[in-house]
Amino acid sequence: MTKKIKFFAIPLVVLLFSVFTGCSSDDSSNSNSSLFIKFTHNGIQYNFEDPFTTTSLSKNIRYFEGSDETFIDISLWMPLVSTTGTFNITDSPSDVSTYNASFTLGDDLDVDADSGTITITSVSSDYIQGTFSFSGTTFEGTPVSVTNGSFRAANIQD
User: For residues 13 and 18, what is the distance between their CA atoms, to the nearest angstrom?
Assistant: First the structure.
């Protein structure tokens, strides 16, 4: 009888050991695989997950949420086919070959960038990654700066 127990116990222990040691945890995440857009405005660091990418005549990496006074919206526009490098932000959003940005914070702040840069550090068929900073003036004449920006988003090219 002890031979029968050993015969069944040894494979059972091996099976349980392989099940528990072979499973990987989904709790650990590689920061390179997450999508994000981060930036600083007026000393406040904003850090948002899962910006979305849309395309039409150009590519738009965008994050927005909230409503009324809590509304926040940041957009980065670039050509559909993006390459690595540093590109100047212009204030001509109708030109699909230029780089543009905008930032809205509640009802109090709405600015289209008139200067700054978008640096694209990595482009693959799946993702686009880089940094940005820009400034502009609200309709009321208040200067606005967005600094220390970085992003990793889905790369849609058409």
Answer: 9
Closest CA to 101 of 92, 113, 93, 88: 113
Question: Structure tokens of 88?
Answer: 């100047």
Q: Please, is 123 exposed, middle or buried when counting C-beta atoms within 10 Å of its C-beta (0-12, 13-18, 19+)? A: middle
> What's the N-to-C CA distance of the chain in angstroms?
70
CA 93, CA 157: separation in Å to the nearest integer?
Answer: 18
88: exposed, middle or buried (C-beta count within 10 Å: 0-12, 13-18, 19+)?
exposed
In this structure, the number of other CB atoms found within 10 A of the CB of residue 51 comes to 21
Characterize the bridge pairing of strands 109-123 and 127-137. Answer: antiparallel
The per-residue pLDDT for range 26-39, each reduced to its tens digit, is 333 344 459 999 99
The pLDDT tens digits for 78-99 are 999 889 999 999 887 567 788 9
